[in-house]
Design goal:
Structural class: mainly alpha
Largest sheet: none
Shape: rod-shaped
Number of helices: 1
Order of helices and strands: H
Helix content: over 70%
Length: about 90
């Protein structure tokens, strides 16, 4: 029985030694990956906010330019219609 017990003890030690790298991976590597993911996500969100502000400002400027063009076009159209009605 001593040999069987010795084999079982050796097998447990071998299993424990085989598990140590996996335990280190779970305790060290997984949190590092999670922290990296969160940091990248914050960076992306911050750059999207800056891009959204730029896009919104550009859209507002284009909208103002379009309204100014429309007002000019209406004035020109009024003049053309008056000239066509009263030659």
């Amino acid at each position: 029985m001593g040999r069987a017990r010795d084999r079982a003890c050796r097998r447990e030690r071998c299993t424990l030694l085989g598990m140590i790298p996996w335990i280190i991976m779970a305790v060290v590597a997984v949190p590092l990956v999670v922290i990296d993911f969160v940091a990248m996500r914050r960076k992306t969100a911050a750059s999207e906010l800056l891009a959204d502000d730029d896009v919104q400002a550009r859209e507002e400027q284009e909208f103002a330019e379009a309204e100014a063009y429309e007002a000019r076009w209406r004035e020109e159209d009024k003049e053309k219609s008056r000239q066509e009605r009263f030659p």
